[in-house]
Predict the structure.
Amino acid sequence: MVSKSGKSITFLPDDVIVQVSHKDQSVLELALRVGLPLNHTCGGFGTCGTCMVFVRKGLEKLPPRNEIEAELASDRGFSDEERLCCQMEPIDGLVLEIPESKV
């Protein structure tokens, strides 16, 4: 599933490498496109927190949390590495870990 250009995101714990496409609007949409079992109770609106992942590599490449994600992260006490897939754009080189309780 790695693109010819080498632009990809890795999902742990299964080391699934997924090609980053300009068509993908969010990391959640990318994960769902390839059939990764990622919970998303609110449908990608950033209100439930079920699509939270740990950023294991590439955190410095991500922009700051948007207002929706920042509010939920503050309410739930997320660390900097805990991000919502529905609010992240797919950026080449990210390594994201799906918590075991969510797979």
